[in-house]
Design goal:
With 137 residues, this protein is an alpha+beta fold. It is built from four helices and five strands. The structure holds zinc ion.
Length: 137
């Protein structure tokens, strides 16, 4: 994989893929792209982006920002976010909830911590946000 390939799995260069989302110069056009950009944000320790793309009703948003950002950074440092597999995406117009199911290949000190999750996303008027996720086996 080339040095600047985006970790989100599109095969695009980072600067032409999730980079603008992380920088805040663009918003992901779909829930799937938002989901991908959150995976690449974990891979690249873009903690501010991870916080910013949580839906206002996400449980972490009810907690102090500094504490949540510290935990997110700890997760970024503890795990290696290797690859993202998109299993299903149900796109909806803004105003409705979209659903994305994915498998994340994640490793912790060489141990496989990969997981499958079905996530809900909601558009808040500015962009798609991560509302909730439930583990799938
Ligand atoms: Zn990307």
């Amino acid at each position: 994989m080339a040095q600047d390939t985006c970790p989100c799995g599109t095969g695009e260069r980072y600067a032409a893929c999730c980079g603008p989302f992380h920088k805040g110069t663009a918003e992901p056009p779909t829930a799937e792209r938002l989901m991908r950009s959150r995976f690449s944000a974990f891979a690249r320790r873009e903690v501010a982006y991870l916080w910013r793309t949580l839906d206002a009703d996400h449980p972490d948003r009810q907690r102090p920002e500094e504490e949540v950002r510290r935990e997110l950074l700890a997760a970024c440092n503890r795990y290696r976010y290797v690859r993202l597999h998109l299993l299903a995406a149900t796109e909806r117009p803004p105003g409705e909830q979209a659903e994305v199911t994915f498998r994340a290949e994640v490793f912790e000190s060489g141990k496989d911590r990969s997981f499958t999750e079905r996530s809900q996303f909601r558009h808040d008027g500015a962009g798609w946000r991560y509302l909730s996720g439930e583990p799938r086996s």
